[in-house]
Design goal:
CATH class: Alpha Beta
Distance between the termini: 28 Å
CATH architecture: 3-Layer(aba) Sandwich
CATH topology: Rossmann fold
Strand order of the largest sheet: 2-7-1-8-9
Helix content: 40-55%
Strand content: 15-25%
Number of domains: 1
Largest sheet: 5 strands, parallel
Structural class: alpha/beta
CATH superfamily: P-loop containing nucleotide triphosphate hydrolases
Radius of gyration: 19 Å
Length: 204
């Protein structure tokens, strides 16, 4: 059975770093590559960072109900998770990790109630602002918009199964790894592995 892990966070919370470390340290994980209608930025590669498609194609896929979740962000660009990402993970016997926003997480939990959701946030507004300023050349207007968005996203923390305060990176990575490993160890998710062991005892 494929486990689905939803990871969300306000911009600047350190989510990308934590997810990157999770993917390195835990075997049998597949990272879900989202679809988007925006243009590639910098060194972004199609099929690696995102699947870049036209707005017309994206909307056609919405009508065909191909997305597990999708959203129009800032009224401009679409983002979404195609159902083939889950199908491919299941076929390969891997668990799926999704990096999506609160809106997408809500949709996905409706589609896949058993999905495990994790919300990551910075220890304080001041630290979040420091991280945003250190990593970008955003204008003061854009910076304020990101902070407002963060405040809105944080209000939705209660819809997540876990909340991870990312104060120290190594400790946060270890917590994230523990969540994944604990989920895999749940009895109902282990039955396929346990059954042949039980049968070996019964058959003596």
């Amino acid at each position: 059975m494929t486990n689905v892990f939803i990871i969300s966070a306000p911009s600047g919370s350190g989510k990308s770093t934590l997810v990157g470390e999770l993917m390195k340290r835990v075997p049998r994980l597949r990272f879900s590559v989202s679809y988007t209608t925006r243009a590639p930025r910098g060194q972004e590669r199609d099929g690696v960072d995102y699947h870049f498609i036209s707005r017309d194609e994206f909307e056609a896929r919405i009508r065909a109900k191909e997305f597990l979740e999708s959203a129009l962000v800032f009224g401009h660009d679409y983002y979404g998770t195609h159902q083939s990402e889950l199908e491919r993970a299941a076929l390969e016997g891997l668990d799926l990790v999704l990096d999506i926003d609160v809106q997408g997480a809500r949709q996905l939990k409706e589609r896949i109630p058993a999905a495990v959701s994790i919300f990551i946030l910075a220890p304080s507004r001041k630290i979040l602002e420091q991280r945003l300023r250190s990593r970008s050349q955003d204008s003061p207007e854009v910076m304020e918009r990101r902070l407002r968005e963060a405040a809105e996203e944080i209000r939705n923390y209660h819809m997540y199964d876990y909340v991870l305060v990312n104060g120290e990176v190594e400790a946060s990575v270890e917590t994230l790894v523990s969540i994944v490993e604990a989920t895999r160890s749940r009895r109902e998710r282990m039955e396929q592995e346990i059954r042949p062991i039980l049968e070996s005892f019964e058959n003596g």
